[in-house]
Design a protein that fits this description.
194 residues, alpha+beta, globular, Glutaredoxin, seven-stranded mixed sheet
Length: 194
């Protein structure tokens, strides 16, 4: 009888936790962006108006990972729209890893090639030194060899309205698409918390 009562109490406890407890766990605080030493392709210092952001690194000569990731991020934007999230509630931020080659003009051409016109997509660049410093907030690594070939980590980051890094996700690598469902959930959670 005691075993039955114990099992019943455990069952009731689980039901209470599942139906009354919080629906989602808070995203962890992984790190903080102390400053944004980068500018937009218009030469402006970014102003994110305290919005959640998905941040990814890219370079315009990337043959595979960067362009397929951007295509998946366009799908993310559509998914968020379908879930009732407006473009002015979040940002998609792309930071070039090759600012010497990726001039503002070249980045704007790249952006046009993907037909990106939404104002919540922000493409940033800085000096080589500023870019290297900025990537350190994320423990993101990259290297450019003497032939100009760039290799880089394949991680993207969800950043909250206070510039705290709250989650990381994989870019599109080797046939694996970006998990836009998880990223959408992360962004929606941060939007709802603001």
């Amino acid at each position: 009888m005691k075993v039955f009562i114990s099992m019943l109490l455990i069952g009731i406890g689980l039901v209470v936790v599942l139906f009354i407890g919080p629906r989602t766990l808070d995203l962890p605080k992984i790190g903080k962006i102390e400053e944004w030493p980068l500018t937009s392709t218009k030469g402006e210092v970014p102003n994110f108006n305290e919005k959640p952001k998905l941040l990814t690194f890219f370079y315009t000569n990337c043959p595979d990972i960067c362009p397929t990731t951007i295509i998946d991020l366009q799908d993310l934007q559509q998914l968020l729209k379908e879930r009732g999230v407006k473009e002015d509630q979040y940002m998609i931020v792309l930071v070039t890893l090759d600012p010497t080659f990726d001039t503002n003009e070249r980045i704007n051409q790249y952006k046009a090639a993907f037909d990106i016109s939404s104002p919540n997509w922000v493409f940033l660049r800085g000096s080589n030194e500023a870019t290297m410093t900025f990537t350190q907030y994320f423990n993101f690594t990259y290297d450019k060899n003497q032939n100009g070939l760039l290799t880089h980590s394949t991680t993207m980051y969800v950043v909250d309205e206070n510039d705290l890094i709250r989650a990381h996700h994989d870019m599109a690598v080797g046939g694996e698409k970006v998990n836009i469902e998880e990223i959408a959930e992360n962004l929606i959670q941060l939007i709802d918390a603001t």
